[in-house]
Protein 1
Amino acid sequence: MRNKKYSSDLSTKSWQHIEKLITVQRTSKWAVKDIVDGILYLTKNGCVWRDLPCCFPPWQTVYGYFSKWVTDGIWKNISDCLTFDYRDKVGKEVQPTVGVIDSQSVKNSPTATERTGFDGGKKVKGRKRCFLVDTLGNLLDSFVVPANYYDGTTALSYWGKLSMDNILWQEIQYIYADGTFGGQFKEGMDKQYEIAVVIPKAPIAQKGNISIHEKRWIVERTIAWTRNNRRCVKDYERNTENANAFLTIANIRRVVKKI
C-alpha cells in the first residue's frame, strides 16, 4: 500500500468499477491499483516513464502493464464499459444513435518519430487525432494518424476497422461533422453503413469570434477535456497505438468519476 496519495489516484468507488474489467493472469507482488494509479498519474501530470515517483511500482513494471493492456485492448474495453454505465445512469439508451466527429492536429515531440506529417491547413507538424463522441461528450472511439492525412477519406477507411467489434457504434444513425468530413466520407457512410452525415452550415450561437454549430461543440469540448491531461497536450509517443491509448485513458479518468 502506498503511503503517498495524488489527485490522479482512483477513489475506492472508482476502482471498484475498473477492477472487475482487468484480468491479471500471473501473480504480482505489486497491487494492480497502484499500477493503474501510476499510469493515471503519468497521463495527468505528463512526466516521462523513468520519472514516475518511487512510491509507485518500478516504472518498467508500470510501462509493461500499460503496453500489454494497449495490445490486449483492455483500455478500450474499460472506456466502453464506463460509457455504457454512465449513459445508463443518466437515463440514456446505452447504445447511442447520434455521434459527433472531429479531428485535432497536435505537434509531435522528439520522441514521437513514427508516422508523422505536416498539416498544411493548421500549419502543424506532428499527428492528427480523430475523435468520435456521443452527445454527452463520451469518447466512443479514436485513432491517431500522421497530420497530413485528410479527415474524410481517413475516417471512412478507419470506420470499417474500428466498428467491427465496437458495440457502441451498432445503433448510430447520424454523425455530426464539419465540412472536412463532407464528400467521400459523407457519401461512403451513407452507401456502406446507412449512416447519415450531418454538416451544419449556420451557427446556432456566436460568442465573440467563435461560431458555435449544432452538436459540433460537443466533440470540441471533449478535445479540450482531453488536453487537461498533460501527456495529451503534445504527442510524445513513438507509435500511434500508444498515443491513441492515452486519449482513451483520458476519457476513463473523466467518466469514472461521474458513475
Protein 2
Amino acid sequence: MGAETGGDPGNRQLKTWKEIAGFFGRDERTVKRWESERGLPVRRLPNGSRSTVYAYERDLAAWLDRSEAAPPDPGAGAVAAPRPQMEWARRRYTPAAIAVILCAATAALFLVFGARSALPTAAGVQTVADAPNAEAVSFYRAGLHEWQTRTPAGLTHAVDDFTQAIVHDPLYAKAYSGLADAYNLLREFSTMPPGESFPRARAAAERAIALDPTLGDAHAALAFVDFYWSRDPQAARREFQKALALEPRNATTHHWYATFLMTIGAFAPALAEIDKAEALDSESTAILADKGLILFYAGRRDEAFALLQRIEQSEPRFYSTHIYLATIDADGGDDTGFVREMAAAAAARNDQPGAAVAAAAAQGLARGGRIAMFQAMRAEQKQLFADDQGTAYEIAETSAELGDRQDAIANLQLSLARHESKIAALAIDPPFAPLRTRSDFRALMTKAGLPPQP
C-alpha cells in the first residue's frame, strides 16, 4: 500500500510499518519499539488488526523535534533524522566548491561579529544566537541520516547535505560540526586521502566551535583530527574530555573516545567508554563493531570474534567488520579467512587498490601458503605505492609479518615522514609486536606522539 498525500504534500499518510520506518531511515523493529517505549504517533484503523497501521508525516516530524529537544534515553537507540522532501534537485559539491563555501562562511562570521555582539550564554561564553532556518535544518537532518550509513556514497551525500545547510545558514554551528564528522569518516570508509579529509574536518570543526563553543560534537570532531592527523594525543584527550563535559550523554563522543583510548593501549578505559556508548545507542552497528575490536585488543579474542561475526551476518556490507575480522584472522593464522575478509573490506569501501592486494594475497596463498601470500601482497603494495595508490605503513605491516624487520622499520620511518594517519595504530597493531622492544621502534613511537608501552 502506497503513501497518500490527502491533498497536503507536506502531510502524507504512511500506511505500513515499512513506510514509517523508511521515513526515519531505520528498520521496522526500531520504529515499533519507538511506538511502545517512546510514544511514536502511529495510528490504527478501527476494528482492524494490530498490524494495520498508518501515520502522518507531520506527526512524525513533530515527534522527532520533541525527541531531539528532550534529554536522550540511555536505553534507546539514536533517532535517525528523516530525509527531507526538497522541491529542488540536490546539488553536488566538489572539494574546491566546499572550500569556497567555508571561506565565504568564515567571512560572513566575521561580518556578523563585527556588526553586533554575540549573546553571552550561562557558561559565560559567546555564541551566535540566530536559530537556523527551516531549509538548513532539513538539510542538516538529511546529512545526519546519510552520515550514519558509514558508506562511501552515504558519506558523500552527507557532505553535500551539511554543505547545503551551511549555504542556507552560514551561522549554523551544528552543520559545520556534521561536516567535520563526515570528513573524519570519509578518510576511513572511502578512499579519500587523509591529506584531503582531515584538513577539511579541522576547518569545519573549528568553525563550529567559533560559532558555538558549547557544542560537544564539534570538540569531539576536533579531537579526532588532533589524534589521527596532528599526532597530538594530549590535545585530543583534552578535546574529548571537554566534549564529554559539555554533552555527557553523547554516544558518538563516548564511542570515539573509546577508540582513541584503545589506540594508545588503554584497553580497560576503552571498554568502559564503549559500554557507555552502547548504552546510549544500542542499535549502532559502528559502536558494536568497534566494541568487537576493543575486546580483541583487550585479550578477549573469542568474544570479539563472535560479536563481529554476528554483525557481519546481519550487515554484510559494513566495512569495519571485515577489516577487523581480517586483523583477527591474520593474528590467529587463519589465512583463508584473512584473504576473504580483506576482499570483502575492499568491496565495501570501493577500494580498487585494496581489492588488488587481496587478489594478490589469494593467488600467493594458493601458490605457496602463508609466506607466499605475504610476499605477493608486499609486491603488489610496493607497486601501488610507486603509483601513489598505497601507503608505506601497509608495506611495513606486511614486512613485519614476513619477519623482515629492517624493511618494516624503514617503511615506518617513511610513513611517519609522509604523515600517514595509519601510524596512529603503531602501539597496538599485531604485526609489530616483535618490534616493540627495539630502540628504533620506540623512537618511532615517540616521534609519532604515542605514549611509551610497557
Protein 3
Amino acid sequence: MEMKIRSSSRTSGFTLIELLVVIAIISILAAILFPIAGTVRESARATDCLSKLHQLWVSATVYKADEGSYPEALMGYAEIADGAGNSTGVPYTGGALPVVGVTKIINGFMYAEQIKDSNVFRCPDNPNTLKSSTTPGNIVTAAVFPPRPVAWPVYTSGPNAGNVHEYIGDVLQPLCGTEPTTGLTYDCYTKGALAGQRKYFYKWDSYDISPLIDPSTLKPVPGIFARTYGTDWTGAPGAYDLTYQLKYKSPPDDRTILTYCTWHQTIAKTGTFPGINMGGSARKLNASLVLKLGASIFGQ
C-alpha cells in the first residue's frame, strides 16, 4: 500500500502585520530617544559655553589688572585687509573693502593677548564657522543695542530720584543712527575721526554680540545682532549713575554682569541665556528676565 507523505513547508520571514508592528515600535523608540539625545547634546554645548564664559571672566580680570580698566570689547573689531590678506590695523566700517579673517586682527582687546585661541570666543551653538571670507558680509556684521529693558532701574537718590535711568541706546541714537527694521540704535564709534561710524564685529564672536531676541516672542530677529557685552549701559556717568557697570573702577562683583549669550535660545529654544557676573558666577539665566532687566540682571 502506497503511502503519501505530505510535506509541510513554512515560509520564513515577517508577515506584513509583524513588519508593521516592528516599524511602529522603532518609531516610538525614536520619538522617545531622539529628543533625549538632542537635550543631552544641548546640555553639553551649554556646559562648554559656561566654561568659555569663565575663561573670558578670568581674562577680563587680568586685562583690567594690566590696563587699569575693562576692554571696550572682549575680542576685537573687524579690520581692513591689505592686498596680501593681512591686517592694516584700520577698523572696518562697512562697504566693499576686504576684511581680514578672525585670527589675523592685530588690534584685538583680549585676543590675542590674554586669550590666544580664537575658539574661546565662539559659542558651540553659533553656526557661523567661517573665520575668513572674500565677502565681508559672510563673516562680519554691525550690531545694535538691545531695546531699553522694560524694568530698567530708576534713580534711588539725587535730583532724578524716581525717574528711569538713561539708557545707552537712547543716548547714542542721534550720533549712531538706527537700524531700519527694528528702529534700534547701532553701536558706533563715539570719538575721533571714526565718530558716528558703525562698529563691525565678527559673527564668530559670540560674547560681544549675539542674535537679537524679540522680548515678546523670545524668537531671534532675523539677521540682527545685538551687543551683549558693554562697559557702559547708561551712557550718563554721574554721582547717581548705576554703579554696576564695567566703566567704573570697582563695580560690585556679585551685581555686575560681564556678558551673556543668546545663541542657545536662538538654536535650541532653551529659554535661557548663559551668562556670568564679575564674581565669576557663570550660570543659565532666565531669558525673559534678562530681556526685562537688561544688563542690570545681576543688580536686581
Protein 4
Amino acid sequence: MLHYTAPPVTGGVEAILEAHTRLLRRAGYDVRVVAGRGDAHIIPELDSTHPEVLAVTRALQAGVVPATFSRLADRIEGRLRDALRDRDLVIAHNVLTMPFNLPLAAALRRLPLPRVAWTHDLVWTNSAYVPFQRVDWPWGLTGRAAPGVRYVAISHTRRREMVETMGIDPDAVPVVPNGIDVLEFGDVGQHARDLLRRAGAAPADPLLLVPQRVTARKRLQLAIETAAALVPRWPDLRVVVTGPVDPHHLACRRYADKLLELRARLGLDHVVRFLYELAGEGGCHPVCLADVAQLYRVSDVVMIPSESEGFGLPLLEAAVARVPLVCSDIPVFREVADGGVELFPRHANGEEIAAVVDRVLRSRSVRHRRSIMERYAWSEVLTSIRGVIAEALLEGGRLCPESPVREDELLMAADGVTAAAS
C-alpha cells in the first residue's frame, strides 16, 4: 500500500467545498469527500503535489507527454471506481477546468457515473497557465467540455468565459454562486445565536438592536412605537433590547411591565423582544458583553432613544462594529459621536423616529449589505445546489422524472491545490 502525506491546503475552493459538504449533510444527503489529503476518503494520487502527479504536471508544462501519464490515469480511475461504488453522483471542484492533475481529469471523464464539474477557475483565462493552453491531448482535457458532464459556473462572468473558451451552450451551464454564513463570518458564537433563535429574531430582516438597560430614562417605549410605525414597511423587522431589569428597583420592574403592556397593545409581541424575558422568573440575565458585541455585528441599525446619558458607550461600540446608529439629539451624543450618527429630535415620537430609521435602512451602504445577505446566504444558495443535483441525477438516469427529489448519496471529489483555490 502506498502511503503519502501532504500538508492540508486551505483556500477559497476548499472553503466552498467544506461549506457545500456541511450544508448538504445537514439537508440529509449522504456526502463522501474524496481527496488526496485532509479530512476525506484519501486517494493519494488526487493530490496535485503527489510526486508522480507533480512529475507529470511539470513534464506537460514543458510540452512533453510523459509515458507515465496513461498508467497514472488508469490507476486513479481504478481507485475512484472502488471509492464510488456506492455513489450516485460525482461533483468535481475545479478538476476538469484546471491543469494541476490532468491524469485525474482524464480518469473522471471515463467514469460511468453522472458528473458535475463545479467550475471556480479556468486555465484558459489565466495568463499564468499559458503552457497548458493547448487543444491537443492531454492539455485539451480542460479546454473542451467533457461528454456527459454537467458544468456549473460560480458567476455569470465565469459562465461567459466558459462559453467563449469551451464552446458550451450557456443555457446548459447553471450559475450557482458562492455563499456566506453571516453568523459564522461575524464570529457569532452559539450562545448569541441561541439568544436570537429563542427571541424569534434569527430571521430578522432587518434587525434593530437596542443595547440598553430597561430603565425609564432610556425611553424604550419609543423603540416599541418606532417598531409599530416600521412594520408596515418592513414586515420582517425584529427589535431586540439587550439589557436587564434591575430586580432590586421596583420602579424599573413597573416600567418593564408597562413596556410589555404597550407591546401587547400594539400587537408587537413577536416583533419587539426584551432579552431579559429569556431568563425566566427569577433567573439570571442571559446576556453577557460578548453576546452584545456579537449582536452588533449582525444588526442592521442600532437605536439609542435615551433622554439623558453621561457618556453613551453604544456610540463607540456601534462605530467599531460599523453599524449605523440612530439616537436622540442630546448634547453628550453630539459630543461623543462628532457627527457620525443619525440624530432625531429629543422629543420625537415613534413615527418621526421611524422615518429616520427607514432612511438609514434605505441608504446605499445598508441596502448593499442586506442585498448581499439575501442573495448569497448559504440557505439561498443551497436551493440552487439541490436543483443542480436533481437535474444531474435525472439526466444520468439515477432519478425518475415522476419521483420527488431524494436525499441521494453524493460524492465531492476535490482537487486540493493551493493555486487552483487562489
